[in-house]
Amino acid sequence: MEQGKTYLLRIVSAVMDEELFFGIAKHKMTLVGKDGIYTKQFKTDYIMITPGQSMDILITANQSPGMYIMATRSYSSAFGAGFDNTTATAILKYSTITSPNPPNPFFPHLPPYDRTEAATDFTKRLRSLTTVDVSLEVDTRLFFTLSVNLMDCSNEDKPCAGPFGKRFAASINNVSFVTPSVSLLEAYHNKIGGVFTTDFPGNPPRKFNYTGENLPEKLLPTSFGTKVMVLEYNASVELILQGTNVLASDNHPVHLHGYSFYVVGWGFGNFDPKTDPKRYNLVDPPEETTVGVPKNGWVAIRFKANNPGLFLKPNSVYMFSWGFQFSQ
């Protein structure tokens, strides 16, 4: 880098599962955009980025000529779940270094891998650049629970390596997606019957203490199907994404294909429809295409259903392979 110049870094999280902390030694970063959309600018020592998200940051070469390490490490809130806790690094070097033996590079101070407070401190600062036209009246309200479940093994004589000798599955409203042999759009366009049904539940089929401890084992199984939900064109939709503690709780990255949406609220614990909407940000909520649902928490998003198609999936490769998908 050249001394005194400001650089734009476009950062994309291409990891499969965990969210990441990222920082640059001795350099403040200014966040200016997220998911290709401008945000209110703010300075930060680190960012927290979810799988599938992108962020635009500015850095100014305003330090003494030298070498400075850029580093990233996982943020994992799941208890007892294994993950790669290594730290990836790269070197940012000033072009004015002339010494044949430059000093050792400086290392950034990143939050510990399990520091939820650091993740939320960053997330709560996200705002749209200006006042936005978020829908104040809602036509369709949806409530989706996101769970890790168990399913029987295909070979009954040979138990799987998961808990209770079963396999992992994942569900939205206790439905685990089954990939059809014919694409959903093709089946819809050509009126091919038997490929999907239109009875995807808009609310959990069973209500329980979603984030409670020691949930009963009867919640572990999931149903399977190729189900879609039909939304009216141009409907104003509010979708609550509720994490659960079924089997194991974790952050869930969720992406809405074909849309951007406004994150009007988020929090920990069970969503309360009476009190939590009072805390919504309906003035300048961040506009995103991918959002991380916090462990044992919830996110409220709003969008206009004005782009017909099949959308919404998790960005975790594991969750997708276990059947975590929703079709509109």
UniProtKB/TrEMBL annotation:
GO terms for molecular function: copper ion binding; oxidoreductase activity. InterPro entries: Cu-oxidase_2nd (IPR001117), Cu-oxidase_C (IPR011706), Cu-oxidase_fam (IPR045087), Cupredoxin (IPR008972). The keyword DNA-binding does not apply. Residues 1-95, 200-311 form the Plastocyanin-like domain. Keywords: Glycoprotein. Pfam families: Cu-oxidase, Cu-oxidase_2. Lignin degradation and detoxification of lignin-derived products. Belongs to the multicopper oxidase family. This is Laccase. The lineage of its organism: Eukaryota, Viridiplantae, Streptophyta, Embryophyta, Tracheophyta.
